[in-house]
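Thread: Newbie trying to understand structure tokens

Hi all, I'm a second-year student working on a class project, and my supervisor (Dr. K.) asked me to get a predicted structure for one chain before our next meeting. I've only ever worked with sequences, so writing a 3D structure as a token string is new to me. If someone could post the tokens and maybe explain what I'm looking at, I'd be very grateful. Here's the chain:
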Amino acid sequence: MEKRRNKLKAQRRATFLSGFFAILYYEFLWNLRKKKTIGLFLLIFAIATLELALPPILDYYQGVTLQPNPNVVFNFYDGISGIFLFLIAVATTMNTISGEFETGSITPLLTKPVSKNTVFVGKLTASLITLLAIYAFLTAYVTVGGYFIEGTQNNLQLVPLGLVGLTLATMVWASVVILLGTLSKSSLVAALGSFGVWIGITIAGGLLSGLLGQTAILFYAPGMGATGSTTGCGGEAGFGGGTSFSTGTDNLGYLLMQWVLNPDSTLNFCGVRFRGGSMAETFLSSSSTFADVALRALGVTAVYLAVLLVVSWYAFHRSQIIESA
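---
Reply by user tm_fold:
Sure, no problem. This is what the structure looks like when written as tokens:
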């Protein structure tokens, strides 16, 4: 009896793996046929080339001597966020679920000897691998280009950590797109609806920053989040000459890299309060170390991914039952 049970478990495991790899192959082939993945790589290549070549070209025409910059690759992870991450997420996942319903290919897909869970996990994994490949290509290109244009680069050992963080950050928006596509079964609704979510969060974040400063609400919102500064709110000097950057999910890759380099360094978050009519006063709202900020961003990212993907899985599970009924 025990041998039979073990044999059945082995057969189910083999069936899952064969179905999983079949879905991966199907998804990659789908993307290549629509030339979506190739278009993404070309877009990334063009943007990276512009980012690398434009500053030296402008310096040349302005008569400025080109100075070595050993932090091109490191700062790249701070600069790539916001609308760029969102557009990559939309282009990668807008057809992942909804495209199957729009083309009618969901019906023959359901007849394959694969479970509902296998289909969903396979499609999700294909999207994750695609994003990882895009950013790995972009990182390698920026690293090589930065070396030849700006000289030897620092902290390259942290690049894998930044790559993982950047991929997870993009997956937050990709999960929003997948959820809307699963619920609506429309790629157009998935794209436009997710853009509405992104622009709404961006506007709301800007309003909160203007009225309340870097309030704690922004710590737990997807996107750019609160802006932290290495100086005090009154302009006191801090380490690194007083830099500031976003601490939201979009900047997870850079935060993880800073966590390794400066775990105990402090980031200050400035609030705003109004006194005497329209007079605005800036004050120190809160302070956190890079370690705490990075862990918080990682936790918020994990929660959003878990909630959005579980709801997407449930909606896809129910849609399949309805379609096959």
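A couple of things are worth pointing out once you decode it. The two ends are 35 Å apart (CA to CA). Residues 105 and 191 are 20 Å apart (CA to CA). Feel free to ask follow-ups in this thread.
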